[in-house]
Specification:
By secondary structure, the chain is an alpha/beta fold. It has helices spanning 7-22, 33-49, 57-83, 93-114, 120-150, 153-164, 174-177, 195-202, 207-215, 231-238, 246-251, 259-266, 269-276, 309-315, 324-343, 393-421, 447-453, 479-488, and strands spanning 183-189, 219-220, 280-284, 299-301, 354-360, 426-431, 458-462. The chain has two domains: 7-149, no CATH class; 190-488, Alkaline Phosphatase, subunit A (3-Layer(aba) Sandwich). Strands 2-7-6-1-5-3-4 form a seven-stranded mixed β-sheet. Helix 1 (7-22) runs parallel beside helix 3 and helix 1 (7-22) runs parallel beside helix 5 (120-150).
């Protein structure tokens, strides 16, 4: 095992496999393929290019491994520097750490190239270490995949779906089938606060936008709240027309496994019901792993260049996330938002009835637009955190309002185009999955933070139906129950509107 230095190639893929093992419940395994391929190709090229100046394979391998370790540990060192309050000093910690790593790499390369030792023992040690580094996260991945495959949890989710939902799609008669079905747009404006919360916590009067919606024919639920405080939970509930508290009994109240939410979002009852009734299911790319791509979609609309949430986190562990890379990350995030606003109206060109689902990450952080839509380039590591926002509350407040103002403008333009170009009856749902999080600390939420987080925009447009079934405190769990009853003569019971809260890492709802 000391004859050939294969450790650089394993070290090159270790951070990717480790990151996936830690997030296997949130993303599909396919997300690692491109990063692994890029990392391996880069390492192979580096290994053979260095041969021009350094013939010794063992020395060359050790230098490359040192480089890779420094490269993938950079983001973690920055985080450590923040914990140690180095950023309070009047220095650029990003540049200082980069220079420190470069100096260390050159010193290591100098001593490695100058030594007369054959380094067989070092090569043997690094080969064994690299194998161990790959085996440990791989074992966790295999363990997780076997659990998901063989244990009954997901089967229980499927059976609960079947047992709890009536099947109105199986009951539709020829009279209903002859009706011109509406195009349905379910548009999630992530983290969009209710008007009274904007007034109270952000000192922003959003009445102009609300009145505009009402003049267009929207019903705006003035006292609407989400059923759950997190995107995964909220969309799992609204897209399946039910409360999801039963998951805590299945996976445990202290579980942080989000794969079950992903299963519910991907194989949701709404798209199943509508596809069974001849609908084309359209989804748009998002900046959130749980909604970025649904394999059940008939049409997947995506920006030409796409970085998913996994790739963003991976980049953030390297110097790329702090220098040129972070600009790319923020730019792609910005373009995903614009892509959705620009292209949702194009769905009106499809003749068949369509169900369009788009999760737009605005006005949710990161804040990449000012109130006029001009680009903002945050000078920090890319993150989509709202609770745990890396800036100050004042920065959150000001930038949130500005991004909301621009989101209002783009939403108006989008709605105008949809209404003007639609040939079929229309249902448009503008809804937030949860409120903002300027004050929220997940493990110690204050009453004010909970109230801020659990108040949402919730607006409905029916082009050819009365809005009598809607009411001011409707919650998302009843959204499609009402729509399916109204348009498909289904017989869904309208559930009691309840709001549950949970911390970030636990399903213990209260």
């Amino acid at each position: 095992m000391d004859k050939f230095a294969f450790h650089p190639f394993l070290i090159a893929i270790f951070p990717i496999i480790f990151l996936f093992a830690y997030n296997a419940d949130k993303v599909e395994m396919s997300v690692v393929l491109v990063p692994i391929a890029i990392s391996l190709v880069f390492t192979i090229l580096l290994f053979f290019c260095l041969k021009i100046i350094l013939k010794d394979d063992k020395k060359r391998g050790i230098i490359i491994s040192v480089f890779l370790i420094l490269f993938f540990s950079y983001g973690h060192l920055v985080a450590l520097a923040s914990i140690l309050s180095i950023d309070k000093l009047n220095i650029n910690k990003y540049f200082l750490l980069l220079i420190t790593e470069v100096i260390f790499l050159f010193l290591a390369a100098f001593f490695i190239t100058r030594t007369s030792k054959k380094l067989s023992n070092v090569t043997f040690f690094l080969n064994v270490l690299s194998i161990a580094l790959i085996v440990m996260p791989s074992a966790e991945i295999i363990k997780y995949e076997l659990k998901v495959k063989n244990f009954p949890e997901k089967q229980i989710i499927t059976s609960v779906n079947k047992s709890q939902q009536s099947r109105p799609s199986d009951l539709i008669d020829t009279e209903i089938e002859s009706i011109v079905l509406p195009d349905i747009y379910y548009i999630i404006l992530d983290g969009y606060a209710r008007a009274d919360i904007l007034e109270e916590f952000y000192q922003y009067d959003n009445s102009e936008f609300i009145e505009w919606l009402e003049k267009k024919g929207f019903y705006v639920a003035e006292k609407s709240r989400p059923n759950y405080p997190q995107t995964y939970q909220s969309l799992s509930s609204s897209l399946n027309l039910k409360y999801i508290n039963y998951l805590a009994d299945i996976v445990g109240k202290n579980s942080d496994d989000r794969s079950y939410f992903g299963e519910l979002i991907e194989n949701n009852e709404v798209q199943r019901f509508l596809k069974n009734n001849g609908y084309i299911f359209v989804t748009f790319t998002s900046a959130f792993a749980g909604t970025d791509k649904n394999p059940n979609a008939d049409i997947y609309m995506t920006y030409k260049m796409n970085l998913n949430e996994f790739n963003n986190v991976l980049i953030s562990t390297t110097p790329l996330g702090f220098f040129g890379g972070k600009n790319l990350q923020y730019s792609l995030h910005r373009n995903k938002i614009l892509y959705a606003f620009d292209n949702i109206p194009t769905i009106t060109q499809i003749k068949e009835p369509t169900f369009t689902f788009s999760h737009i990450m605005a006005p949710h952080p990161p804040f990449v637009f000012d109130s006029q839509g001009n680009e903002i380039q945050p000078d920090r590591l890319f993150t989509t955190n709202d609770a745990g926002f890396p800036g100050t509350k004042k920065e959150y407040k000001n930038n949130y309002v500005n991004q909301l103002i621009y989101s209002n403008q783009r939403t108006k333009e989008m709605i105008e185009k949809i209404i003007a170009n639609s040939k079929n009856p229309l249902v448009i749902i503008l809804q937030s999955d949860h409120g903002p999080a300027m004050q929220l600390e997940w493990e110690k939420p204050s009453k004010e933070a909970i109230r801020e987080r659990t108040s949402i925009l919730n607006a409905y447009f029916f082009s050819d139906k009365a809005q009598n079934a809607l009411y001011e405190n409707i919650t998302p769990v009843n959204t499609f129950r009402i729509i399916f009853n109204l348009y498909f003569q289904a017989d869904y019971e309208i559930l009691e509107d309840k709001i549950y809260f949970t911390t970030w890492n636990r399903l213990n709802l209260w």
